[in-house]
UniProtKB/TrEMBL annotation:
Pfam families, alphabetized: GCS2 (PF04107)
Assembly: Homodimer or monomer when oxidized or reduced, respectively.
Organism: Oryza meridionalis
This protein's name: Glutamate--cysteine ligase
Annotated region (Disordered), positions in chain: 14-51
Residues that span the membrane, as ranges: none
Length: 493
């Protein structure tokens, strides 16, 4: 299938040149699908959508939308690792969440001291960009690094360490710290500041209409995720299915959100549970991915009917909540009459879909809680060992091929409560995790980059059977004397 869209697009590349070479198909001028970086990821896309000077020669078709995803296929030698992680900023002296003014000062400090370019919306600095890395703000001020696509886990961990060094260098002078945990442990929803970003205002108004926990997701959760490549449609399908089946296992291993408003909340991963009642039109385990008919086209068909959030025009967000991209394709958005979508609109829409694994021009593994820096290196190692090695991938595919939709959904709902102790068939999730960890180690060994050491944190959790959340709960009951405040020091970056 051709990978070009029937649009004549003038897009300026970072070096000032036109991005994409013109091609021809059926006599009409087109350009290659834009090669935007991986900056917009995590629970919600973070920086303002890019805009293009677009001359639509004819409306986008299903083929164009499929081709956008197909354009992500790349040979194995070009596969990369993209890591994204969020963290809570807080005042060291009061433990209160930091407000936008403080965040603005941190962003300005990072830009001035470490040569980042500012991302501005309505005269507010809302993010930074440096090469293929970006720093962005989630709705409640959670700080996110969207890392560059890198070749090895050593590079990934070096990137994480560099970022945390920079953030600490600026934050410490302002008496601001950063916390690596999956859910805000102390403060109520009403205590969380709201970031001045247009898309988040639309989402904040919409979330209570479609679920009971959407505002908690926006304002009080942090995640870490890894973005990985595929070589073909068939490779994408295997990785997508494997990733979905194993997300609850990753959730158990990285479970790290046991507190809410100063007390245990009844979950090991409250963050993961929150996704079960955020907006089920755009989240979940996507059972259709396991159908024989699944492929790029089937995902596009699904995404077309996921309700939209917005259209971005003239640096403004137009509220289109509840409308479908399918209607947009034929110019039937009441809020934007006669407007037709561009590939940028499609790219932006895909960032507003939040399943446990998300497909864009790469796959995002989204099941893990935020955590301390060692786990920020361990999560990509876990997935790279499984999905970037053919032998491990085939073993995992065979292991999970007969799991039913009901079993996968059961794991998704029970693991946030019972973690590695969740029963599964004749054993427990911990038994599965041991076998999967060995496959990941084997895969990393065969990669030849001496990366197995990054799995030590995972190994410690699985061998002990104690999740990070259970360790925190034990500290809470003993050393911390049923006080949650010490977690801010325990998990300080």
């Amino acid at each position: 299938m051709a990978v070009a869209s029937r649009l004549a697009v003038a897009r300026v590349a970072p070096d000032g040149g036109a991005a994409g070479r013109r091609r021809r198909r059926r006599g009409r001028p087109v350009v290659a699908v834009p090669t935007a970086g991986r900056g917009r990821g995590g629970a919600v896309a973070a920086s303002p959508p890019t805009e293009e000077a677009v001359q639509t020669t004819e409306p986008l078709t299903m083929e164009d939308l499929v081709a956008y995803l197909v354009s992500g296929c790349k040979p194995k030698e070009n596969w990369r690792i993209g890591t994204e992680h969020e963290k809570f900023g807080f005042e060291v002296d009061t433990l209160r969440p930091i407000k936008y003014d403080q965040i603005r000062d941190i962003l300005n400090g990072l830009a001035e001291r470490f040569d980042w370019d500012k991302i501005v919306e309505e005269n507010n600095v809302i993010g930074l960009k440096q090469g293929k890395q970006s720093i962005s703000l989630e709705p409640g001020g959670q700080f996110e690094l969207s890392g560059a696509p890198l070749e090895t886990l050593h590079q990934t961990c070096a990137e994480v360490n560099s970022h945390l060094y920079q953030v600490k260098a600026v934050g410490e002078e302002m008496r601001i710290g950063f916390l690596g945990i999956g859910f805000q442990p102390k403060w109520a929803l009403s205590d969380i500041p709201i970031m001045p970003k247009g898309r988040y205002e639309i989402m904040r108004n919409y979330m209570p209409k479609v679920g009971s926990l959407g505002l908690d997701m926006m304002f009080r959760t942090c995640t870490v995720q890894v973005n990985l490549d595929f070589s073909s449609e068939q490779d994408m399908i295997r990785k997508f299915r494997t990733g979905l089946a194993l997300q609850p296992i990753a959730t158990a291993i990285f479970a790290n959100s046991p507190f809410k408003e100063g007390k245990p909340n009844g979950y090991l991963s409250l963050r993961s549970h929150i996704w079960t009642d955020t907006d089920n039109n755009r989240s979940g385990m996507l059972p259709f991915v396991f159908d024989d008919s699944f492929g790029f086209e089937r995902y596009v068909d699904y995404a077309l009917d996921v309700p939209m959030y917005f259209v971005y025009r003239n640096k403004k967000y137009i509220d289109c909540t509840g409308m479908s991209f399918r209607d947009f394709m034929v110019g039937k958005l009441p809020q934007a009459p006669g407007e037709l979508p561009t590939l940028n609109d499609w790219e932006n829409h895909l960032t507003t879909i939040f399943p446990e694994v998300r497909l864009k021009r790469y796959l995002e593994m989204r099941g893990a809680d935020g955590g301390p820096w060692r786990r920020l290196c361990a999560l990509p190692a876990f997935w790279v060992g499984l999905l970037y090695d053919e032998e491990s991938l085939q073993s995992i595919s065979d292991m999970t091929s007969d799991w039913t939709n009901e079993e996968r959904e059961m794991l998704r709902r029970k693991v946030p409560v019972t973690g590695l102790k969740t029963p599964f068939r004749d054993g427990y999730v911990r038994d599965l995790a041991e076998e999967i960890l060995q496959l990941s180690k084997n895969g990393l060994e065969r990669r030849g980059y001496k990366e197995v050491g990054f799995l030590r944190e995972v190994d410690a959790v699985i061998s002990s059977g104690v999740t990070p959340a259970e360790r925190l709960l034990n500290l809470y009951e003993t050393k911390w004397q049923r006080r949650v405040d010490p977690v801010f020091q325990e998990l300080l970056y």
